[in-house]
Amino acid sequence: MILSDLDASLDLGRRLAAVVRPGDVIALSGQLGAGKTSIARGLLSELGLQEEAPSPSFAIVQPYDPPEVLLPVLHVDLYRIEDPSEAEELGLDDARADSLLIVEWPERLADHWWRDALWLTVDVTEDGARRLTARVPTAWGSRWPLT
């Protein structure tokens, strides 16, 4: 899938919001500036967030709860995680029981964390567009591709 501009990335996030549910994990991978946070912002906006979602780069985990959004969401940015053991302190396993996890830089942790995640990789093309590829687990099979 090609995301030609910022609006296309935001729109992808909005379309994801229509099919997510608590317990889902969306892993967003790609270089700095590829548009991971834009996809997350579109999703959060469609779930009801009124203001623009900040990048959680410094906070690492940015929680959103009803009534601010339709369902509990943790927007996670693992860019600053240097050792996988640091992730244990974030409580991501516990949060998965009742929250949607949107995780940027998931490659900072071992693959076992993301077995059932919808893994979206965003690559910047030579013309500045974004090429999106998806690794779709069985749990997402009936919900992907988005229509």
Automatic annotation (TrEMBL):
Q: Which residues form a coiled coil?
A: none
Which sequence ranges are marked TM in the entry?
Answer: none
Which keywords describe this protein according to UniProt? ATP-binding, Cytoplasm, Magnesium, Metal-binding, Nucleotide-binding, tRNA processing
- Using the UniProt record, give the first listed, main subcellular location: cytoplasm
Which Pfam family name is an example for this entry?
Answer: TsaE
Q: Which NCBIfam families match?
A: T6A_YjeE
Record family assignment: Belongs to the TsaE family.
- Protein name (record): tRNA threonylcarbamoyladenosine biosynthesis protein TsaE
Task: Give the organism, scientific name.
Answer: Sphingomonas rustica
The major lineage groups are: Bacteria, Pseudomonadati, Pseudomonadota, Alphaproteobacteria, Sphingomonadales
